């Protein structure tokens, strides 16, 4: 298992899957080990995935200072891995909460990002929170699903600050298809997430939305803002607002996709993401 060293000396593990040009992959959760990403629906047939285990997750070491779990403090870890890989510029793919880390990295080091793919990214770093109304509206659109009657009260309780009788009963709303693959994927979450780190990831001071928006407004790297049709966090509408803030961005909405779109339709996902990653990019001026 390869490792690199963060600026504060924390050992960071990363996992290599597939062949081809490197693609640096940042997991969400927040602070979930990269194992949940798998091969991203077969994207390994097109690119060599470099899946970073953020500090304190997966095979990476626990830092001496828990304050370094904060999202803005993790930017140095991403940059350390880029340097370790010997890449002048890097293609980055980030999922869910990891999209905030990717955006902060691009804002701080725009000259080091060649392409940026934001997959179901929750755009807290831009000052665009996913609201309870967004999530519940998306959930209600699935009233025809056989599991809806049992799952919706727990889902509503989750986002309304009440305790659900069966917390895992709301899990189907995160997937476009609630099948055995989705069940196994959700079951693994409990052992893959560092709860302490997750609580600190977006803590006070992590984000400065005006500064991040200003920095990304001049980003020249192409950006893909990818959303699942059935996802409520972010909804396709919120993903559109993110794309509108980034001059080089385009939004793609996967039909029938949830928060983990590579599980719902791997072929659709890999076709569009691989096409984006293969498109020519102008060299830096």
List keywords for this structure.
single chain; 285 residues; alpha/beta; Rossmann fold; eight-stranded mixed sheet; 11 helices; 8 strands; 16% strand
Description:
- This protein has 285 residues and is α/β, with parallel strands linked by helices.
- The chain has one domain: Alpha/Beta hydrolase fold, catalytic domain (Rossmann fold).
- Helix content is 34%, strand content 16%.
- It has eleven helices and eight strands.
- The chain has helices at 75-85, 98-108, 132-140, 148-160, 180-187, 189-192, 195-201, 209-216, 236-245, 261-264, 266-278, and strands at 3-5, 11-17, 22-26, 48-52, 90-95, 113-119, 223-228, 249-254.
- An eight-stranded mixed sheet has the order 1-2-4-3-5-6-7-8, with helices on both faces.
- The mean pLDDT is 95.
């Amino acid at each position: 298992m390869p490792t690199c060293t963060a600026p504060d000396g924390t050992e960071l593990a990363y996992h290599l899957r597939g062949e081809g040009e490197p693609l640096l992959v940042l997991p969400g959760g927040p602070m979930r080990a990269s194992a949940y990403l798998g091969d991203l629906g077969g994207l390994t047939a097109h690119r060599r995935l470099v899946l970073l285990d953020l500090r304190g997750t997966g095979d990476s070491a626990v830092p001496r200072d828990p304050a370094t779990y904060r999202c803005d403090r993790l930017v140095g870890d991403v940059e350390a891995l880029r340097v370790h890989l010997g890449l002048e510029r890097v293609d980055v793919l980030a999922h869910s909460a990891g999209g905030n880390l990717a955006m902060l990295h691009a804002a701080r080091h725009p000259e080091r990002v060649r392409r940026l793919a934001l997959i179901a990214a929750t755009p807290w770093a831009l000052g665009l929170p996913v609201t309870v109304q967004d999530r519940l509206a998306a959930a209600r659109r699935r009233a025809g699903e056989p599991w809806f009657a049992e799952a919706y009260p727990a889902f509503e309780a989750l986002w309304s600050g009440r305790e659900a009788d069966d917390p895992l009963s709301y899990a189907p709303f995160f997937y476009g298809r609630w099948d055995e693959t989705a069940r196994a994927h959700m079951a693994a979450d409990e052992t893959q997430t560092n709860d302490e780190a997750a609580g600190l990831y977006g803590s006070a001071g992590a984000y400065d939305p005006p500064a991040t928006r200003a920095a990304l407004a001049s980003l020249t790297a192409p950006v893909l803002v990818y959303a699942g049709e059935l996802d409520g966090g972010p909804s396709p509408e919120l993903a559109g607002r993110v794309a509108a803030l980034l001059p080089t961005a385009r939004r793609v909405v996967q039909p029938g996709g949830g928060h983990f779109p590579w599980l719902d339709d791997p072929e659709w996902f890999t076709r569009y993401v691989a096409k984006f990653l293969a498109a020519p990019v102008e060299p830096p001026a």
